[in-house]
Amino acid sequence: MPLLQSAPRVVHLQSGHGLDDIALAAAGAVHVISIDFSEVAATAAQQRARELAAPCRYVIAEVPAVPLRSNCADLVYTGKGALIWIRDLTAWAADAARLLRPGGHLFIYEGHPMVPLWTWDEDRPRIRPDRGYFERWHENDTYPARGAREWQRTLGQIIDAVISAGLQLLHVGEHAEPFWWPDGIDAAAWHGRLPNSFTLLARLPGDPVHATTGTGRRPAASHFSDAS
Questions:
Q1: Separation of alpha carbons 152 and 136, rounded Å
Q2: Residue ranges with strand state E in 47-181
Q3: What is the pLDDT of residues 108-159, one digit of tens each?
Q4: pTM over 0.85, yes/no
Q5: In what order do the strands lie in the sheet with 31-36?
Q6: Taking Cα atoms as reference points, which of 171, 162, 212, 165 lies closest to residue 2?
C-alpha cells in the first residue's frame, strides 16, 4: 500500500484481534496504536505483538472519544466490521479527522452496507424479506441468542459523514469479495454479482508535517498519545 511506504504513524480504530496491526507494521508503519473496547481482545493482541516484536500498542477505550492527542496520526485505519457498532457516525468521523495530522489519510475497508440484505443461500443470491437498506439497525441472527444489534448506514451516509468532518474524499470503491468468509458457508451472494465490501480513502487538507526531535528523528512513542 503506497500510504505505508512513508513509514507512517498509524491509529487503528476498533482493532479487534489485532492481526491487521501486525500486517500494517510489516508493510512499513513505524508504529501502530490500536483502540478497542474489549480488554480480552486488546490484551491478547498486545501479547502477540510482544512475541513478534511488532511496534504495536493497544489502548482499551471506546470509539469515538479516543484518548489520543489530536494530530497524532499520519494514517487512521478502520473497518472489517467496525462501523456496525458505531451509533453516532458523525461523531466517529469527527474523531477520526481529529487524530490526523495535516495531509494525513483515513482509510476504511469495510463490509458494504448492502451486505445485511443478502441471504446465505448457496444456490442463488436472494434478498432477505425481513431487512431493508434504509433501516437504522438490524438484529444479527448469526450471534448466539440473537443478541447483537448492528447499526446500518447507506454508503451515501458514510461518505457524507467523512466529508462533513472536513476530509477530502479521494477514492470510493465497491467490491464483490467479502472481507470475511464464515467457515463452512459458500453463499451465492459472494460470487461476483453483488457488492460485499467497500474501500474509502480520504485526506485531511494541509501540508504533511512530521514532528521531529532536535536530531531530526521522529519523537518517541510516549509522545504519541495521552493514554497510559
A1: 5
A2: 56-60, 73-79, 100-111, 137-140, 148-151, 168-175
A3: 999 999 999 999 999 999 999 999 999 999 998 876 656 689 999 999 999 9
A4: yes
A5: 56-60, 31-36, 9-13, 73-79, 100-111, 197-203, 168-175
A6: 171
